[in-house]
Fold this protein.
Amino acid sequence: MRKNQLFFYTFLVLYLEFSYKLSIYHHINGIDILYTILFSIPVIFILTLISSIFKNKANQVISLIFTSFFCIYFIFSYIFYSLFSVPFSFQTIGLASQALDFTNIIVDTLGKNILIIFLFIIPIIVWFFLRKKIDFNKIELKKVFIGLGLIIIFYAISILALQWNKNGIYSAYNIYFHIREERKTILNFGLVTYTRLDIQRSIFGFHESIVEEEDTKNNEEEELPEEVTTYNQIDIDFDGLIASTNESGKKNLLEYLKNTSPTNQNDYTGYFKGKNLIFILAEGFNSIAVDSERTPTLYKLTHNGFVFNNFYSPVFLSTTGGEFQATTGLIPTQTILKTWKNNTPNIYYALGNSFNRLGYTTNAYHNWTYSYYERNKTMKTLGFYSYTGCRNGLELEMNCKWLPSDIDLMNVTFPKYSTEEQFMTYYITVSGHAPYNFTGGNNIASKNKNLVEDLPYSNSVKAYLASQIELDRALESLIQQLEEENILDNTVIALVGDHYPYTLSIDEINEISSYERDEIVEVNRSNFIIWNSEMKEKVEINKVGSQIDVLPTILNLFGIEYDSRLLVGKDILSNSEGIAIFSNRSWVTNKGTYFANENKFVSADDTEVDNEYIRKINTKVANSFTISDSIMKYDIYNYIFKSNRVNFQ
């Protein structure tokens, strides 16, 4: 094989891999360097071999194609990660394609990352400088077989090397064979190996196994006050359900659910029973937008009613992931979201479904294209059969040109449900959408520019704040209309952001944050609003909670019968330990924060936390992903609730 070709491809692959890792993770561990090199060697030999088996000119063209493809793919992967905070997966195709239609956002992202993009183009420049020095002549057949042998040998060595790191949930061995965790796969093995595994799993399927946990059910029950005797639980014949299926994965899931501790009912169970609910998924909303002068309505709602002091809105593939978390109580992954959008599974406890069973009139509204993120399909699985957006009716009543106003959204839709005896209305807003600027297509920011132009922040930050003012004024108008119709006291307003404004850099976010945030965990800290005008005193909750806890918390507050074992999220008002889980499997509890990429735990109050606790929570987090995936894969709600093995009491 040609040595100079081999040297070039070694440079190409390893340069791109380590540049990508440093750009995304900002650090590389020694063991990750070793595994990346080992798993890259077979790829390097394959590239060298393929571009050596034809005649000179053909080999040269093939080499340029390989070089260009690798550089472009790494650029694409980096930009995709910058846009969505998750690595690109072939499971993603069809999920994020519409989001990529926002060319102004893509252009903005490209502009902010132009230097990094240039770094990924360097191998193409190097190729043109070295092309005359590289031998592209055809190699002998004997060397082809030698090359194939070397590929097999080095691949075997890389697989055997995994045996050195088998211990631990997120060991290199488990990441390669048993766990679908995109970031850790890239961190351990590099983007090329991750892509190979992703394609392989997309074609042949892949399902994680449930990790055995210690039985903590009895311990949790003993911690309850003596007067607490009821749980958010229904009578399910799990033994009968288990016996009725031959699928091992479904059996394992049902066994796990059977042995899961339910959450307790509490002083706030049924607190809002019979009231109306307006639930708002607010685009780009984050606690950094809340200010007593700029956004007085948001300030009032976040400082009254139920006040959750340690709440997070973790990013899982942009708005669609935030929506799935908040309305289903399950963790979204790219595989789960694809199942949701393609197979229309039964999500029994989803927001709309739960209120439908009580006889509420349920409506959903979105002031952008109604089919965006395939909501024309997913709204039905959430229980919203009445769903109106732009291009299926809303454009007849308001201006749907980019960017539409949240004020208009609420003003034109309010009369459609306000006269109903009981209503549950779901809004998905869009005025807070990126890009955050005053010149590149954000007319909402430009509309409110005069309200922020004197602030001592960068233009991107000021544009973001201007966009959130529109949400604030929409809420002000909504509350005023509720009051005029004499239904304000009988209506609960719940609001949660879909994700933090991730097109802002961490430095820009920290310009207006009240404390220094990191870009993995604390950047996701936000507010969860649950407010009703009849509440005379606020209720402060210090327990950690996150987006997946929104649905069970609302179900408990409205006194809706549900089985808490069948949701990954938990009622934040219950006795269960609070936890926020992030897409890279980092987590926060009241004891501290675990940074998965660095395998580092930081105590909340400097008290020592033993490794057993960290291992226990890591196991719980891993299973939370698996359970969410299994519930969707096996359409488990349909299996349970369409059987005759559920006794509603």
Observations:
- The domain at 219-647 is CATH 3.40.720.10 (Alkaline Phosphatase, subunit A).
